[in-house]
Amino acid sequence: MTAQPLCLSIGALSATLPNGDRVLRSVSLDVAAGEVHALVGESGAGKSMIGKALLGVLPPGVRQVEGSITLEGTRLETLAPAARRRLIGARTALIPQDPLTALNPSRRIGPQMTDRLTHILGWPAASARARIREMLAEVHIREPDRVIAAYPHELSGGMRQRVLIAAAFAAEPRLIVADEPTTALDVTVQKQILRLIADLQRRHGTAILFVTHDLGVVAKISQSVSVLYAGMVVERAPAPELFATPRHAYTKALMAATPRYTHPASSLQPVNSAVLAELALEVRAADTEWKRAHG
Amino acid sequence: MADRLFTVEGLKVSLPDMARKPLLGPAPMLDILHGLDFTLERNCITGIVGESGSGKSTLGRALVRLLEPSAGSVVFDGHDIAHLPEPALKPLRRDLQMIFQDPMSSLNPRRTIGAIIAAPMRHHGLADRIDERVAAALTRVGLPENFAARYRHQLSGGQRQRVGIARALALEPKFVLADEIVSGLDVSTQAQILTLLDQLASEMGLTIAFISHDLSVIRRLCRNTIVMRAGRIVEAGPTDALFAAPRETYTRELIAAIPLPEIDDDWLTR
Ligand SMILES: Nc1ncnc2c1ncn2[C@@H]1O[C@H](COP(=O)(O)OP(=O)(O)OP(=O)(O)O)[C@@H](O)[C@H]1O
Ligand SMILES: Nc1ncnc2c1ncn2[C@@H]1O[C@H](COP(=O)(O)OP(=O)(O)OP(=O)(O)O)[C@@H](O)[C@H]1O
Ligand SMILES: [Mg+2]
Ligand SMILES: [Mg+2]
After folding, report:
1. Taking chain B, what is the end-to-end CA distance rounded to the nearest angstrom?
2. Is residue A239 part of a domain?
3. Taking CB atoms and an 8 Å limit, are A184 and B260 in contact across chains?
4. How far apart are CA B86 and CA B105, in angstroms?
5. Distance between alpha carbon B257 and the CA centroid of its chain, in Å?
6. How many CA atoms lie within 13 A of B235 on its CB side?
7. N or C: which end of chain A has fewer CB within 10 A?
């Protein structure tokens, strides 16, 4: 599909809960350098968990039990924890799903944004400050100086989200895990942010793992897509192919549940029980095979 | 003329700007809403859409009097509630309910779902037959009655949002503010919640202000729409007309920026 080298390659990744149930079921996905790869699927499917496994911040009790994660040619499992953290810190950035809990309520925005640049990447304080002002302007924040001096609760939801987007892009990482980065934005700002992402991707070859519920956004920003259900990739395809000829019944059902302003009268169908039954069978089959292979 | 539940005139909200607060003395005021005039039709869902940071949530908080406006009148069902003190507001509060965006953080993790739904009823003196009332509230939003014994971590995102709706509707309010209540949900759950809201609104004769960034959702759900930008109303009217023939450039820009789930290679650069 693309001749670009891989930025991220995840192979047969499984992760379990303390009770032994898998939250990730042999997930494989590749993100080429400079590519936006969308990860879609229902709430609880494990989208954020994939990002957390990659960044090495799985919640307590959740364990990666199998599989490989390769970042720009380096297998993360082969690194000592400190070296892995350093590599992740230098090459990747996360735009977290929940802006409010990701920001410290008792510190002003400015210092929270420069932290990463000064502490992890060793930038001088003055250049870090200049860089974040520049980035806040790039994400179309109207009054960067007010925002830099503000506390998180003094900003609207969309402003907080843009603060985190600006912080992630500031250090020009090789890979960004963007977890629902535009849910709190109005559509015109969302479009400007998508444009910014496409532009950075083109200028710097940044790869992006883009987690979202919004198939509209997927269609506009991504080159390839993985559809996740119950921690299992049920369909993976280049974006044009996925929208032209979705293969899995679940992908088709997601498309039917998406409202379109151009079709205001059409009824919105949640994923129906026949599709859910089919998915349950697939999950069972995958688990049976996994148990057989692992005793 | 349509029957109105809210008539708002000259609504202004200013908040202290802590970022510019001098070391000594009070913080300067920051104007957030610059004098809004609008009405909300009774038994009708009105969509509120617009720029991020334009004051939609602030407007919503002023309508349910979670904050006091700095000027203007907010006439709700015949009473100007803009500056009513808390004791005078109390009997009206049960008619002014709110569903939160994030049911996770608005549901107390240590209380059962039943206790969470019962709390506002007890607060408003409806302590009799409480189990029956809780069961009715759960049934209304399509949840089994035995969910009353569960805790929030035992529910999916969509189920939690149903609990948020059940809690807001338990008092059979006249008005419900819904601020971005589906933006965190997947499309399948969103379809269920929208259908439920639509059905309950007509069954119970609710008036709803529905704040959302998703214009496809607003187009689908809301009879009227208000478009906001920078603390002002840009355009307001019936949703059909607004989409068919937007009068203002900003409204046209908004509509043009809606991403449809279709491949369109030069959409980003248009
Ligand atoms: N700390 C945790 N401990 C145990 N299970 C967890 C934990 N966090 C999440 N889970 C479970 O893991 C599964 C995957 O969660 P994840 O957060 O990855 O979902 P998601 O696809 O990102 O959903 P959403 O769209 O709602 O953000 C869910 O079933 C969730 O309940
Ligand atoms: N407590 C506060 N102190 C100072 N300013 C505030 C406070 N709360 C909100 N603001 C400011 O008021 C303006 C409007 O905020 P509001 O949250 O109402 O916007 P919104 O339209 O809901 O935006 P979004 O779509 O991003 O949720 C913003 O500029 C915000 O920074
Ligand atoms: Mg998630
Ligand atoms: Mg808001």
Report:
1. 41
2. yes
3. no
4. 25
5. 23
6. 17
7. C
Domains of chain B: total: 1
Q: Which domain, by its residues, includes B140?
A: 107-172
Within-domain flag for B119: yes
CATH code of A262's domain: 3.40.50.300
Give the distance from residue A67's alpha carbon to the nearest chain B alpha carbon, in angstroms. 28
C-alpha span between A158 and A187 (Å, rounded): 11
B positions 81-140 inside 8 Å of A (CB): 101-102
**What predicted TM-score, i.e. pTM, was given to this entire model?**
0.90
- Residue B147, domain member (yes or no): yes
> How many domains is chain A partitioned into structurally?
1
Whether B58 is in the pocket of ligand 2, judged by its Cβ within 6 Å, is: yes
In single-letter form, the type of residue at position A81 comes to P
Pocket test for ligand 1, best of A47, A55, A232 (most atoms within 8 A of CB): A47
Protein residue with least CA distance to atom 1, ligand 2: A154
Q: How confident is the model at residue B1 (pLDDT cuts 50, 70, 90)?
A: low
* Residues facing residue A64 across a β-bridge: A15
Report the residue of chain A nearest B189, measured CA to CA.
A270
The string of pLDDT tens digits covering residues A154-201 is 998 888 989 999 999 998 899 999 998 888 889 998 998 898 888 878
What range does the domain containing A273 cover? 6-290
Residue A256 pLDDT > 60? yes
Whether residue A295 lies inside any domain: the answer is no
Distance between Cα A232 and ligand 4 center (Å): 34
pLDDT in tens, A1-36: 445 689 999 999 999 998 888 999 999 999 999 999
- Chain A's closest residue to B267, CA to CA, is A220
Give A22's DSSP letter.
Answer: E
The reply to whether residue B254 touches residue A186, judged by beta carbons under 8 angstroms, is yes
